[in-house]
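U., I forgot to send this yesterday:
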Amino acid sequence: MRSPDRREEQVRRLLAGPHPPVPTGLAAAAAARGDRLVRRRRALRRIGWVLLFAAAAAFAVWASLARPWEIPPSEVSPPLQGW
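Result:
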């Protein structure tokens, strides 16, 4: 037998062989776990967006009050000329 034929025969034996019993609540438990994961991811995504918008609003308020684009006034007066 060639190698691919042997592998195909092994797969056929595994598929045709006796299958172990599946627990009765397995599908319901898997669906419940999937539902919890989806709700958790959705909540985390919403929290992330809220935090992003809050940070953007805080930055806008800070920028409007601090005006970092303006040159600060000089604290040293220019030299007196003409004396």
